[in-house]
Amino acid sequence: MDYETLRYEQAAHVVTLTYDRPDQHNAVNRTMNAELHDAWQRFRDDDDAFVLVITGAGETTFCAGWDLADAASLTETPDFDFFRTSVYNSPGECGYTRRADIFKPVIAAVNGYAFAAGLETALLADIRIAAENAEFGALERRWNIVGGDGMTVRLPLVVGFARAMELLITGRRIDVHEAERIGLVNEVVSRGRALARAQELAREIAALPQGAIRSDKESVLRGIGRTLEERLRIEAEMTLSMFLRRDKHTVGASAFKRGEQPEWPNHGL
Fold this sequence. Notes:
- The chain has twelve helices and ten strands.
- The chain has helices spanning 30-45, 68-72, 80-89, 117-123, 151-159, 161-170, 176-181, 194-206, 210-223, 228-238, 241-244, 249-258; strands at residues 6-11, 14-19, 51-56, 61-63, 106-110, 113-115, 127-131, 135-137, 174-175, 187-189.
- The strands form two sheets. The chain has a six-stranded mixed beta sheet, with helices on both faces.
- α4 (117-123) crosses α5.
């Protein structure tokens, strides 16, 4: 697929996915939504893509949310059963937001406003690097729009129940320093530096053996909402991957025993 609203760029094992509608504050319209579904699956299925960095074009806006001008042109859906089936089967109305099958690391370079679906987009990432001018908020409250792309699911997991409920109920905007304090942001950098720092971190992660990273991320995602016993069982099951990889865990253990740096001909996979 050729993208009109995105830039998909790969350097070695790092993919940078840029929301590229700066005149519309990188808001997600129906065209971008379809392209995002393709781009995320492209990253998921590419054996040479290890880490994804998501960002927005320009220095002032990461993603301002759903394009309400585009949404306003939608007509009422007369067939409720058709709409219900579509919502259930859709990967998300603002991108690949209702899927949890990507176990490769994802970093968000938040370079400005991350509101509504933009905040939901940032929450897709495992790590969030934010510029000092970044702001966050569930601003869809103002337009009587619900959080339909992971807001009510991922935000409490990231910042905790009490903080999430306050942000969801009030629709309050928070600056980057408050976002860092409540755990929404992992690292704050100077204005204009979020993407460079995220790509630097992505390269560091891409240089690590990938098998354990993916197994641990899958264990975390599959364990959410389960009992402690179930989560421990899932974690134990994931240890089986150590014996199934081309680069088995014994490569690293043997190198440690010899006092050497391990070599991973298959990138730890």
